[in-house]
Amino acid sequence: MTFARTLVLAALVLAAPAGAQTPDPDATLVEELVVTGRLPGPAWWRVSDADTTVYVLGAPSVMPKSLPWDQSVLVRRLEGANRVILPFNQVSVSLLTVPGAAFNLLRLRSKTPYEETLAPPLRARFAAVRTQAGKPADRYRVKNGLAAGLILVDDYRQAAQLTAADPAKTIRRLAKARRLKVEEKSYDGAALLGQVVKTPRAAQQACLDDALDEAEAGPGGARRAAQAWAEGDVRGALSAERGFEKCLAAAPGALALDTRFKADQAAAIARALKTPGHAVAVVPLRPLLAQGGVLDQLRSQGFEVKTPGEE
């Protein structure tokens, strides 16, 4: 994977669900929606109007690769669905935005590894984490602490066999095999790189420290949260440490990105409710359940929302 693609994908995956200004908009959940599932496998919510139901699966932010989970409810709900809405976390650069992306990438690039700019204790921590991930110092030739942290967390998660691609990747494959309409959305990679460039130095350093904390803590917390998700334990699934995600609140434009992400997902579900029958949607858990989040917005629009405990 190229440096540019790694940086942009990491920025989108990590920033889209939790990006915001202080206070963190995903910190406060709608408690009546945080309910343990009664059916086998992960928890589902239902959004309905008079003649349509959208079954919504809440997805963890990361999970172990090849984590086994009961897909029987998913397979049943895919049968006869008129569409499948996946998390809106794709990234692209159009012909119009290529110059901006290239310019921002050059602004982030450095001739020397980032760790050489750090004080000895922090430099030792950085070197230990990237060595454990199997990466050379030259991979992190950037001028920006947030950029270094984004790449480092992405490398750590890959080395720890953690992925942000599932369960969406599995659901996309199952939907395509059934020739179902799949709805996704891409965001502008050039704009995301621009946000990283503009992040204040103090916030860059805070995010780098949080990135190191996550990697040094190891994958145990993420694995436990993912296992809870697979068993329908919603509160357990929400227990994963979010320090690095929360620190991204300082990135310029993060609040607007968070608001747009939630509004776009809610709008996609609302559109699906205009077609009689049923559909399937996948939304990251915290943006799904937060106050002002996807389900909260849909309830305010008059749609009926039922919890996993009402199956």
Distinctive features:
10 strands; 48% helix; 311 residues; two-stranded antiparallel sheet; alpha/beta; elongated; disordered N terminus
End-to-end C-alpha gap: 42 Å
Tell me the number of helical segments per DSSP (H or I, 4 or more residues long).
14
Number of strands: 10
Category from helices, strands and their pairing: alpha/beta
Average predicted local confidence, pLDDT: 84
Radius of gyration over C-alpha positions, nearest whole angstrom: 20 Å
What is the count of distinct domains? 1
Shape: elongated
The string of secondary-structure elements, in order, is: HEEEHEEHHHEHEEHHHHHHEHHE
Oligomer: single chain
Range of strand content: 5-15%
Main beta sheet: 6 strands, mixed
Strand order of the largest sheet: 7-4-9-2-1-10
Estimate percent helicity. 40-55%
Please mark out the parts with pLDDT under 50 across 5 or more consecutive residues, or reply none.
1-9, 12-22, 92-103
Topology:
Layout: H1 3-18, E1 44-48, E2 52-59, E3 63-64, H2 72-78, E4 84-85, E5 90-92, H3 98-108, H4 120-132, H5 145-159, E6 162-163, H6 168-177, E7 182-183, E8 186-188, H7 189-198, H8 201-217, H9 220-230, H10 234-237, H11 243-247, H12 254-272, E9 277-284, H13 285-289, H14 294-300, E10 304-306
Parallel strand pairs: 2-9, 4-7, 4-9, 5-8
Antiparallel strand pairs: 1-2, 1-10, 3-6
Q: Can you put this structure into words, describing what you see?
A:
The protein has 311 residues and is an alpha/beta fold. The protein has one domain. The protein has helices at residues 3-18, 72-78, 98-108, 120-132, 145-159, 168-177, 189-198, 201-217, 220-230, 234-237, 243-247, 254-272, 285-289, 294-300; strands spanning 44-48, 52-59, 63-64, 84-85, 90-92, 162-163, 182-183, 186-188, 277-284, 304-306. The strands form three sheets. Strands 7-4-9-2-1-10 form a six-stranded mixed beta sheet, with helices on both faces. Helix 1 crosses helix 7. The radius of gyration is 20 Å and the shape is elongated. The protein starts with a helix and ends in a 5-residue tail after the last strand.
